[in-house]
Amino acid sequence: MSNRLLPYDTIIKAHEGDPIAIQAVLDRYAGYIRYFSKMNGYYNSDMEDYIRTKLIESLFPEFPVKIYPTRNMGEEDEKSGEEA
Q: What pLDDT was estimated at residue 10?
């Protein structure tokens, strides 16, 4: 990972919502995100998603991102068996 900082213009554009600038920020910090996504020495994809979400949320403090728990793929839908 390079020791260069992100250009100020990129940070401003990311804050304004430019998707290319947001991706540049995520790409710049991908190594850090991956490193801090480890739990007990193992990579945890849920933690990586959480950290990415928090980074994006920090770019837009006026629009907080809600994180909803995901359900397991094996769980039955509550409405299965009920007719619509």
A: 92
How much is the pTM? 0.61
Written as six digits, the tokens of 50 are 């959480």
- Give yes or no for a contact between 43 and 34, defined as CB atoms under 8 angstroms apart: yes
In the 3-class helix/strand/coil scheme, how is 9-70 assigned residue by residue?
Answer: HHHHHHHHCCHHHHHHHHHHCHHHHHHHCEECCEECHHHHHHHHHHHHHHHCCCCCCCCCCC
Going from the C-alpha of 44 to that of each of 9, 37, 54, 56, the distances in angstroms are 32, 6, 16, 19
Q: Is 28 buried (19+), middle (13-18) or exposed (0-12) by CB count in 10 A?
A: middle
Burial 35-55 (b: 16+ CB within 10 A, else e): eebeeeeeeeeeebeebeeeb
Spatial distance between the Cα atoms of 17 and 72, rounded to a whole number of angstroms:
32
